[in-house]
Every structure is written in structure tokens, then in C-alpha cells.
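Working notes for the structural subgroup meeting. M.R. asked for a predicted model of this chain before we commit to crystallization trials. I am recording the input and output together here so anyone reviewing the notebook later can reproduce the run.

Input as submitted:
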Amino acid sequence: MGGMTKAVTAGMPKQRIEEAAARRQARIDRGEEAIVGVNKYRPEKDEPVDILSVDNAAVRENKIKRLKKIRASRDHAKCLSALDALTAAAESGKGNLLQLAIEATRARATVGEISDALEKVFTRHRAQIRSITGVYGSAYAGDAGFRKIRQEVEAFAEAEGRRPRMLVVKMGQDGHDRGAKVIATAFADIGFEVDVGPLFQAPEEAAREAIENDVHVIGVSSQAAGHKTLVPQLIDSLRKGGAGDILVVCGGVIPVQDYEFLFANGVAAVYGPGTHIPTAAAEVMDIIKKRRKAAAE
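Returned structure, recorded in C-alpha cell form:
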């Protein structure tokens, strides 16, 4: 195994990238690095941007119909033969897997079926979730505001007997988790206990993990426009699991015109691009305290 392959397997390059991203986010939050229109030279009033809204449920239904049609109309024996050839080549180590995958595609095999054919031999890669700590907080050494929010978290821990706990999740087909990892390390450095869910979780899986870990809040990181479908499903799953008291906050690339929809569906707060993380953490703490006070009454 080559050095770089070993490094990737150990998760080293990804960790270094995430550490660099956390350091940069801290510089942006402190105003040391300017991003025009975000933390410097902001417009006096935000201009509404016309955004195409896609009905995720309708797209999914259409895709399922097309898949059924393809499976019904293809040459079943030819398709199976192409997939078997792929598995055999993976087993023997002989033959061009890309060429065989193209042939399977021409026989109308799906990407999922091709993956399954290879998985029989290679098994499935499971990404290890590693969290980094101290990187974001180190940029705030001696900062009075940062110290204040940390003291609030400590006071909560003393009063409640445990720290505020957050689960950071990525749901659906959103394959980018660097922003989620930056949020996780920042909140951990502020004093939260933070769990990070794996990529591509279903809402039901995220809800189950939140309930099992007994978290106060779920932070949904969204980049791929699935928030209007996935977040209501997550909240519904929490309620069905008897955990409707777990707060859900959302962050990432979410259009302002979708905020009201999310609030109406039970989301406690939404943080768009350019959010100052320590301010967001203070707000989340405040929401947790208010929710717990209301439950006690």
C-alpha cells in the first residue's frame, strides 16, 4: 500500500483540511479575514434572489417510475451476465473493471447494481468519523466574548449536571461535510458535547441517533437543497420516537425565503452563510434554556 493510500485510510489528509477550514472560519468570525458582502461591506438591505424551487418528492417519484420502466424493458439475462462478469473480474483481479462497468451500463444495469456487484468482493468502505478539537478555540485565546459564552456553557453544565449536547447531522445525498466538521469543532471548543453523524443519513436514522445519545439539540447542515423534505421528516421522526423536545436548528446554504417554511415545521433557528458561530452558540444555549424552563413549568 502506497504512503498516500495509507494516509487516506488513516484519515490524515481530510483531518488536515478540516483543521485548516476551522482556523479560517475562526479568522472570519473574528473579522481578521474579510469576505466582501459577508463580514465586511455588507449591503444596506438584502436583495431577494429568485431561486428555482424543486419539488424533491416529485423528482424522487419520477426517478422511481423511470427505474421500474428500465428494469421491466431491459434484457434481464444480458444484464445479470454483465454484472456477474464484473464480480468475477473483481474476484480474479483480471480484466478492466471500468470497461466491464460500461458494458453493464449498456445492458441497463443501474449504478446501485454495479456497486453491489463489486461490493460482493471488495466490501463497502465505511468512513471513520473523526472530530478535531482545540483548533477553532485556539484562535480565540484571551477573547472576552468567547470566554463569556464558555462560562455560560459551564454554568449550564453545573446547573443541569451535564453539558449541552449537540448532534451534527448530514442527511440525504449531500456528500460534503467540511462545514459540518467546522461547526462541530467550534461548538466543542465552546464547551458543548458534540456528536457527529455519518454522511448520507436518512432522517429516521438521525432521529434514532439523537434519541440514543440523549442530545439537547440537532444541528442540520444542509448544502444540497434537501432541507424542505428532510428536516420535516426528521422532526416527525423525533416526535414519533417521543423526543419532540429535542431542538432542531439548521445551517448551511438555505435560501431566506425557505426560513418561514422551516419555522412553521418546528425548526427553532436557521443560520445561513456568514453566521458568526459564537453568536449562534449563544443563541442555541438560550433556546435550550428557554425550552427546558418551559418544560419544567
